[in-house]
Amino acid sequence: MMKDNFPLKISIIVFLAAIFILLMYSLNRTNWRLVYALDDPYIHLAMAKNFSKHLVWGITKYGFTSSSSSPLWTLILSAAFLIVGVNEIVPFIINLILAIVLLYAI
Q: Which of 1, 31, 78, 98 could form a disulfide linkage to 52, CB 3.0–4.6 angstroms apart?
């Protein structure tokens, strides 16, 4: 028996609409540049970039630094950077996908 997906579809539509509105507002206020409010995303971005491009686990390509508070997230970002290239929007898109998966799981 198929489960009714109507509540899921509505939840995803409302979620994506809210994210779109907030994203457009934020981009408009930051001259169309995606900006993360905390420094942690930038640490993960730098480490993932250096790991995917130079195989160095660190903030710079010159040496190891154990700066990641979430090594699995850094590895996921590194894999994504290998697939689509280094871009600041990649973590945002991965989070959107995982949020939709979570809505489906609920």
A: 78
Domain boundaries defined on the chain: 6-105
Of 105, 81, 106, which Cα lies nearest the Cα of 93? 81
Low-confidence ranges of the chain (pLDDT < 70): 1-3
* Per-residue 3-state assignment (H helix, E strand, C coil) for 19-70: HHHHHHHHHHHCCCCCCCCCCHHHHHHHHHHHHHHHCCCCCCCCCCCCCCCC
Nearest alpha carbon to residue 44 among 2, 13, 76? 76
3 state SS of 13: helix
Alpha carbon distances (Å) from 71 to 5, 66, 87, 104? 35, 9, 19, 26
The pLDDT assigned to 2 comes to: 60
Q: How far apart, in whole angstroms, are the C-alpha atoms of residue 60 and residue 70? A: 17
- Report the pLDDT value the prediction gives residue 66, as an integer from 0 to 100: 86
